[in-house]
Design a protein that fits this description.
Length: 205
């Protein structure tokens, strides 16, 4: 989560959507930088608005350019599954997926880590359930979307953003059964709808 009062933007950081790379470029322009999970990096807009309402009082929320990135639900879940195979997570057994197949991930890991795998769209909605973003970028069109953000907020470095915190290779869509894909699509049905109806469309305040 990044807030710039000078350049008037709010970046809402979703999981596994290049948020670390985006933060590295935009952080120097921000008065508020929450770039670690333990401090609320991936909190939702509604959580942020409640926690920092005193700060938002310094700016008209309608003047902020609010943006974020959403990922195809199947790719999103696979990325979370694969990323938690890294050895660093062995130190936190609840989060480690290194010795699980995808079926075990669904049946064992997900029930214990609901906060890690909640629908993406919840990060981008108000307490009333209204989508708050001016631009919601789909991950498959990330560079195109960031080029637009770059022009909008005046940070040309976004057009040549370096990759950081890349997830390790692992399971792919081809490795999943039809039933497993159906499980993902059902759990993230609203995400799919929002990606198809709202992503990559610029909404001015």
């Amino acid at each position: 989560m990044l807030l710039s009062l000078t350049k008037k933007f709010l970046f809402i950081a979703n999981l596994k959507t290049a948020s670390t790379s985006i933060e590295r470029v935009l952080a120097p322009h921000c008065e508020l930088r929450l770039n670690q999970s333990r401090f609320g990096k991936h909190q939702s807009f509604s959580e942020f608005a409640e926690r920092f309402k005193w700060l938002l009082g310094c700016a008209n929320i309608n003047d902020l350019f609010i943006f974020g990135v959403m990922r195809d639900p199947v790719d999103y879940v696979l990325s979370i599954y694969n990323s938690h195979k890294r050895e660093i997570f062995r130190e936190t057994p609840r989060l480690f997926t290194g010795e699980m197949d995808f079926e075990q991930f669904i049946s064992q890991w997900v029930p214990k880590n609901g906060d890690q795998l909640r629908p993406q769209h919840l990060r981008f909605t108000s307490a009333e359930g209204r989508l708050v973003t001016n631009l919601l970028i789909s991950f498959d069109r990330l560079l195109e979307g960031l080029a637009l953000v770059s022009e909008r907020v005046g940070v040309p470095e976004l057009k040549n953003m370096p990759k950081t915190n890349v997830s390790p290779n692992g399971a792919t869509r081809a490795d999943l059964t039809p039933e497993q894909i159906a499980w993902v699509e059902q759990k993230f049905a609203r995400d799919r709808e929002i990606i198809e109806r709202h992503c990559n469309i610029l909404h001015e305040a």
